[in-house]
Amino acid sequence: MIKPVTKAVFPVAGLGTRFLPATKVLPKEMLPVVDKPLIQYAVEEAREAGIEDMIFVTAPGKSLLEDHFAPAPKLEAFLQARGKTTELKSIRDGFPATQRVKFARQEQPLGLGHAVWCAKDLIGGEAFAVLLADDLMMATPGALKQMMGAYKRTGGNLVAVEEVPQDRVSRYGILDVAEDDGKLARARALVEKPAPEKAPSRLAIIGRYILQPEVFDHLAKKQTGAGGEIQLTDALAATLAAVPFHGLRIDGRRFDCGNKLGFVEANVAFALKRGDLGGDVKKMLKSIQ
Ligand code: G1P
Question: What is the whole-number distance in angstroms between the Cα of residue 208 and the centre of ligand 1?
């Protein structure tokens, strides 16, 4: 039986040191691409995939992020009174109902696997999605929706994958591919952040996962891996014998907003796509070259 996916986990407890000083106070997931915070793109992607229950794994100092998903009656009343309907829509549409938003705490930065483990009690024994907001996806339909389509056939653990250059494999979880039809690959093993000469392939996990609750059995052991962190990839590797693991290539584009170049690129690409901005941005880019 393929378990339905009704909950999404957003690990948002990272310190975002690569974006200091911007992230001294501002959570990195609140950095805007054009005029929307990264985390909101991820939440909208989850909603497009049919998910309404959102679980944020936060850390101390992330209250701005909690505020962003809380109702703002004063601001709404102000916009309403001024007839600012577009602005009003922008703080209503795309937001999940407040009672469907939950927070789990990760008290210490022990790794992505640990962050996901912190959401265990809110997930129960269900299948669930994980979205890493700094992997920003530009895709139609959305990346997670594409994955939901494939998941109906594969079941098990399913992640989004992308071929990366050999000299970048050490930044990612990498698949040891057993079968691959060019769109969907099945893995026989997984390695987190391998050295380029040891990588079994160039097929990298990017920040979208549909996972089975069995992953918690391994995460509960709190074993550390690459970088001394509790790695999600290791827990998924440990359940491979019991739970099939597939990687889906997404139709669309990923922007790595965890680094500055990717973040700038995302801002330009998303601005160019906007009906209200695209033409002017194109002219502006020509003028500053
Ligand atoms: C995490 C995962 C890694 C995955 C990557 C995708 O790494 O551990 O397996 O490939 O996200 O962005 P991080 O970027 O947190 O180092």
Answer: 10
